[in-house]
Amino acid sequence: MPQDNLRWLDDWYQSQCNGDWEHSRGMRLESLDEPGWRLTIDLAGTSAASASPQRVNLDTPCGEWIDCAISEERFQGSGDPRKLEQIIGVFRQWVDAAS
């Protein structure tokens, strides 16, 4: 059975921890007042550092939205309150494609 995106992110994060990256760079999950989520991951020094710049932006009339991008060795994903799993999934697809 395929691993769910949150467990995959847990494993990916742990595999990047080297005593430096997780203290000086790492990742951050924040809530937004829109409302929604923002996931920021510094890719410098990780297995995903070579991920190509990409962007996905979806906005529906019923208020669902997601906006994810890789730019300047940083992943930034935002979305409405029900999109955290999908944000992580976009990051996972891009990391898998880069390896």
Q: In words, what does this structure look like?
A:
The chain is α+β, with helices and mostly antiparallel strands and 99 residues long. It has one domain. 31% of the residues lie in helices and 32% in strands. The protein has 3 helices and 5 strands, in the order ααβββββα. The chain has a 5-stranded antiparallel β-sheet with strand order 1-2-5-4-3, covered by helices on one side. Helix 1 packs across helix 3. The radius of gyration is 13 Å and the shape is globular. It starts with a helix and ends with a helix.
State the shape.
globular
Biggest β-sheet: count, sense, barrel? 5 strands, antiparallel
SSE topology string: HHEEEEEH
Rg calc: 13 Å
Structural class: alpha+beta
Terminal Cα separation, in Å? 21 Å
Helical content, roughly? 25-40%
Strand order of the largest sheet: 1-2-5-4-3
Mean pLDDT: 92
Number of DSSP helices? 3
Amount of beta strand: 25-35%
Oligomer: single chain
Give the total of domains.
1
The number of strands is 5
pLDDT < 50 stretches: none
Topology:
Blueprint: H1 5-16, H2 21-24, E1 27-32, E2 36-42, E3 54-59, E4 65-71, E5 74-79, H3 84-98
Antiparallel strand pairs: 1-2, 2-5, 3-4, 4-5
Helix pairs in contact: 1-3
Pfam family, one: Imm53
Protein name: Rhodanese-related sulfurtransferase
